[in-house]
Amino acid sequence: MTAKPPAVRATVHGYPRQGPGRELKKAVEGYWKGRIGADELRRIGRDLRLATWRQLAEAGLTEVPTGGFSYYDHVLDTSLMVGAVPERHRRAVDTDRLDGMFAMARGTQEAAPLEMTKWFDTNYHYLVPELSPDTVFTADSSQQTGEIREALDLGLAARPVLVGPVTYLLLAKAAPGAPAGFEPLTLLDRLLPVYAQILADLRAAGAGWVQLDEPALVQDRTRAELDAAARAYRDLGSLADRPKLLVASYFDRLGEALPVLAATPVEGLALDFTGPAARNLDDLASIGGLPGKTLVAGVVDGRNIWINNLEKSLATLATLLGLADRVDVATSCSLLHVPLDVTLEHDIDPRIVRWLAFARQKTTEVVTLARGITEGTTAIADQLSANRADLASRAASALTRDPAVRARAAAVTDADSRRSRTYGERGAAQRARLGLPPLPTTTVGSFPQTDDLRAARAALRTGRLDTAGYEEHIKSAIGEVISFQEKAGLDVLVHGEPERNDMVQYFAEQLTGYVATRHGWVQSYGTRYVRPPILAGDISRPEPMTVRWTTYAQSLTGKPVKGMLTGPVTMLAWSFVRDDQPLADTARQVAMALRDEVLDLETAGTAVIQVDEPALRETLPLRAAGRPDYLAWATEAFRLTTGGVRPDTQIHTHMCYAEFGDIIQAIDDLDADVISLEAARSHMQVAHELAGHGYPREAGPGVYDIHSPRVPSTDEVIALLRKGLRAIPDDRLWVNPDCGLKTRGWAETRASLDNLIAGARSVREELLRG
Ligand code: GLN
Ligand code: ZN
User: Fold this and answer.
1) Which residue among 64, 199, 671, 754 is least packed, with the fewest CB closer than 10 Å?
2) Best of 447, 503, 564 to mutate for ligand 1, by most ligand atoms within 8 A of CB?
């Protein structure tokens, strides 16, 4: 036993880049519009970095992370760092690195952008590296060395943070034109020398430690992939002149990858000890700890917005101290995924603010914990007692616990989540009620959000327009959407969602238990930031949320107007969710609130109700072991939302992605009467996947790709429908776009829907002719 407790350091893996006034977004967009030049953009970027590092150091972090600052996306920066530039962007990048980078991110007239996808199970999106057997990696460490020099010049201890080579390759996809079956991971041996060069450059620039992020290793990995990780860190670890290496993992436990990494000569591992990743603690004990290594312990959750339980974290750290040579305290992952500073939120109930910790507050928590270990808990006695009081106030608060909501959720029975009739009986009743033609046409919900609408919303916010005036704008937008759809000849109409700025926020604002932030911006991708609402307490619905607009739309037409709701899983996925009860319980509460809305719509005469679940697949747990449980509560929540309607009320759902092989059984388990899916780009492949699974109900694989302004021709629609009919019979196939139209312009929307309807009519005639 040592008499004196060890000196524990405090750090974070990364920090929001935006700046307190969203300066980065404004600067980058200003640069794109030509309002500022490249030098000015770089100056603003540098000022933001320096201000962030100074603030982190002043807060008491021993070491600040560098290299994570990005004008667009840090995975894209990694592609430039290793020279992985697709041929079509090569000229742009060689001419000007900054403009070339933006070309890769956003595309140009001649060259399509890189594909964008979600960063693990967060709501951050990165640009997917494109690699092929011809990719030649070259090292460009300028950004990384530049940043650490800036931090060292400030007199700070700094640690560059890079995307690790294994994760980089596992996140990459085969470039168009690469041989079938090409796997980017096979390029590892070519990539490692480039990383070796960059590590040497960073060492020369003054880096003592370099962090390599390998979150891909928390997913289920094959033996070959684990072997690749072992080889990577054995090779990099045996370099002669290199900085110390910290391999970081987060978002889940390392599992089988833990002993693999522990056996490599790297000096440190960073592990996540929050949520389900807390199992890392037992795993670590069972391999005998990390003798001779540093453990960076992620005990402060980097992706939720709740205060830490400091006492619990201290207990975890105390256990960990016996399992490694030294232990540092950290957030579980980069703070990129949380808003900047909760003290800016003057509109949130102060009783709730004290339960919240954004990036700035989480940094302080890490510092406090490190101090508690180094100097003993008496040194942080004040913080501990305040923390205890805050946690207790949350646990006991009437804001988080509504007895009526709890009683109702507890009384839910299996029957509540089942429709009263089989699909066969329902389908017949719905056909009789709706009288639709074969291959009925519809849309997914939203219509173009016009400048007039955006201006009206802004005017409402600033008080230049009153509620009545704003509602006139909404009504006129609904009127326009209905009359267009009638003229165009769509069969099932929508009201167009003009009143919704965002499909989750709109409902969150009307549900009790949700809290909205004013400054809680989080980067979604590039310069796009979102403000996820906070699901803080028990959920109930005081008033109908959509009935008024749906019935108004219905009053303008004799055709059926589809009611439009966001489903419970998506309501959770795109919010910051409470962490004091199982997700399944929270989902059930949201489902019951939405069920009320569904039933009110039905009572108001709505015959078709769509409950969107675009997030069902993206929330799938990273490891397969967690999936059955998730899918069970997720599908139950959807069925609870929709299960109370009459047999002749038609329930639709919508999801916007083409790869859903992993969840096809879950889609079936939703028991929706009709599902619309993205399919145009994959040429109706989903129709065949549904058919292969024996999907027994109706489906509308999208025939109009709404992700581009391109107008599909009638012939293209016809060809896609014929393809669809080979998988799904004509009495169960719907005709619709891939997704909502809110991001599209009116002109292309009109032309595309006209062609979609013409295509449907033409194929109907073919069917009649037999
Ligand atoms: N009903 C929504 C819309 O049309 C669906 C959006 C989505 O799937 N993300 O906008
Ligand atoms: Zn969609």
Assistant:
1) 754
2) 503
Q: How far apart are CA 498 and CA 500, in angstroms?
A: 6
Residue predicted with more confidence, 661 or 489: 489
Buried b or exposed e, range 19-50, using 16+ CB within 10 angstroms: beeebbbbbbeebeeeebeeeebeebbeebbe
Query: What's the CA gap between 165 and 231, in Å, rounded?
Result: 11
Residues that place a CB less than 5 A from ion ligand 2? 614, 656, 739
d(CA 114, CA 405): 46
DSSP characters for 348-407?
S-HHHHTTB--HHHHHHHHHHHHHHHHH-GGGGHHHHHHHHHHHHHHHH-TTT--HHHHH
Q: Which DSSP letter does residue 733 get?
A: B
Q: Give the type of residue at 259.
A: P
Residues 6+ apart with CB under 8 A from 33: none
Ligand 1 lined by 614 (C-beta under 6 Å): yes
Residue 644 near residue 599 (C-beta atoms within 8 A): yes
With a CB cutoff of 8 Å and minimum separation 6, the contacts of 398 are: none
Q: How many CA atoms lie within 13 A of 646 on its CB side?
A: 14
Given the residues 495, 654, 693, 707, the one annotated as active site: 707
Q: What distance in Å separates the CA atoms of residue 479 and residue 477, rounded to the nearest whole number?
A: 5
How many Å apart are CA 369 and CA 308, to the nearest integer? 10
| Ligand nearest to C-alpha 503 | 1
Structural tokens at position 149: 């020099």
Give the pLDDT confidence of 407-444 residue by residue, as tens digits: 999 999 999 999 999 999 999 999 999 999 999 999 99
Q: What is the DSSP letter of 441?
A: B
Contact, 234 vs 639, CB < 8 A? no
Kindly report the average pLDDT of the chain as a whole number.
Answer: 96
Q: Could you confirm whether 707 is annotated as catalytic? A: yes
Nearest to 740, CA basis, from 478, 420, 498: 498
**15 Cβ partners below 8 Å, 6+ apart?**
52, 56, 65, 68, 334, 335, 336, 359, 363
pLDDT of residue 681: 82
For ligand 1, atom 3, the nearest C-alpha belongs to 740
- Please state whether the predicted TM-score (pTM) of the whole model is above 0.85: yes
Is 125 touching ligand 1 by the criterion CB < 6 Å? no
Chain segment 116-173, per-residue pLDDT in tens = 999 999 999 999 999 999 999 999 999 999 999 999 999 999 999 999 999 999 999 9
d(CA 609, CA 612): 10
